Amino acid sequence: MTRRPTADVLIIGAGPAGLLLAVELAAEGVDTLVVERDARRPRRSRGFTLNARSLDLLARRGLAAPFLAEGHPAPHAPSVGLPVTADLDGAATDHPFTLGIPQLRVEEILEEHALAHGARLLRGHRLDALRQDADGTTARVTADPDGPDEPDGPVEITAAFAVGCDGGRSTVRKQAGIGFPGTPATTWTLLGDVVPADPADLTPGPHTGPGGTVFVLPRPGYVRAMLTDPAPPDDPRSPVTPGIFAEALEGALGRPVPLADHIWLTRFGDAARLADRYRDGRVLLAGDAAHIHPPAGAIGVNVALEDAHNLGWKLARTVQGTAPDALLDTYEAERRPAAERVLAHTRAQALLNGGDPGLRPLADLLTHLVSRPGGPAALAETLLGLDTRHPMGADDPGAHPWLGRLAPDLDLVAEGRRVRLSELVAGRRALLVALNGADAPEGAREAGVRTVRAHCAAAHGAAALLLRPDGHTAWVRTADGRETGDLGDAVARWCGKTDGGVPEPAARLRP
């Protein structure tokens, strides 16, 4: 058994959740090690979408630019199973569009940032066992002898905390004894990245035939075709052969569709499961390890990024010894209810997409409601999590609409220059903003909260804001003097005593 150097945090899984979490932790000086089972990155992307919520969160870390430079924007959310689009025009977002970009490229960009901040990545290492005690966690992993990293054979890694970002079949979750209740898959969908011999046979959009509907999405040099698997095998993980896919395609459309090439064939189910807890002592879960759901709405990668964005700053401060009491517990308190909503919304969309004639009256009613003024934007906000509001412990949560929500990316004039609020939040510190000549409230400086005085033409009646390090609004004083609770309580709840700096090494939680 080879013993590796210790780490503050061990992350199992180098998908979107694990890599963004590594960025968040390493950027704050947390010694972070990512272990990934696959020796090499997969060649194909399941996901191709970053939604408005993800882009808003990435912008709060100064990370959105490389994705925006490469992606292809569309002004609406993915199909929701209704004859109306979830239009993002007027929605509460700084990025009113959906960005088409392959998941593999998302992972590559995040990996580049994680490594640049000092995170370490071990590919080709499979987690075999994980145990924890009061002082930390110990993981036993086995290195693939054909992988790119040394050494070969068993490796033991100790860390103060371990985070499972290792997918729906998470070994971390199983080793921690965390339940994963929910509903198993009852229907299966075939996915084929294919090249039709005649492009006119599979043009973008839905194609309905006597045996069902085929959804076709354009991709560079090929199309992605999705349709219900009419005869799923006993083992859904068995390969999808070109013959199986061609037969299902012909059965759905009622005509043969010659294919010049099969780039990737697979299937996925509509299972919906949610971990019964996101934390067990020093072990936490994020991404698909914590929740799986039908792929309706193309939201999977985005929910994983939200988990990492919420967890990163809280875990960093816990490791550094600066976190207020129970700060880390707010990760589950905020993200598990959000996952419950995602499961409910995606199951509803899957039902509407299923073509059940018994649901037609419900679909007609929803279409009528959503078609009203403001309806498409409201639907988009709900499905994409743009209406996410975290409980802040305030006495009057209705006193200002920004409380608990991600503060909009205000255009400010501060210290004689124009600056976006997202630029100030990107420093990962709590921020107290006094607006339009209002006095800066006392009671935050001793907690290391950064204070900024600024002018803003769109303050929406706010005179002062306390923002958490993730950009969510924790406290508001309005221009007429009303406050959403006590500022001191909000600072104590979210910032602790030394939010502005990393303590001496002796104060850090190490195994």
Give a quick rundown of the structure.
InterPro entries: FAD-bd, FAD/NAD-bd_sf, RIFMO-like. With 511 residues, the chain is of the alpha+beta class.
Structure annotation, total helices: 12
Rg over C-alpha atoms, rounded to the nearest angstrom: 24 Å
In the predicted model, the low-confidence regions spanning at least 5 consecutive residues are 498-508
> In terms of structural class, how would the helical and strand content be classed?
alpha+beta
The rough form would be described as: globular
Number of DSSP-assigned strands: 26
Instruction: Report how far apart the termini are.
Output: 18 Å
Chain oligomer state: single chain
Helical proportion, percent range: 25-40%
The average pLDDT value, as a whole number, equals: 88
Bin the strand percentage: 25-35%
User: Major sheet, described briefly?
Assistant: 9 strands, mixed
GO molecular function, one term: monooxygenase activity
Cofactor: FAD
Pfam families: FAD_binding_3, Rng_hyd_C
Domain FAD-binding: 7-344
Q: How would you describe the overall organization of this protein?
A:
27% of the residues lie in helices and 27% in strands. It is an alpha+beta fold. Strands 1, 2, 3, 7, 8, 9, 10, 18 and 19 form a nine-stranded mixed beta sheet that branches. The chain has a six-stranded mixed beta sheet with strand order 22-21-24-23-25-26. A five-stranded antiparallel beta sheet has the order 13-14-15-12-16, covered by helices on one side. The radius of gyration is 24 Å and the shape is globular. Residues 498-508 have low confidence and may be disordered. Keywords: FAD, Flavoprotein, Monooxygenase, Oxidoreductase.
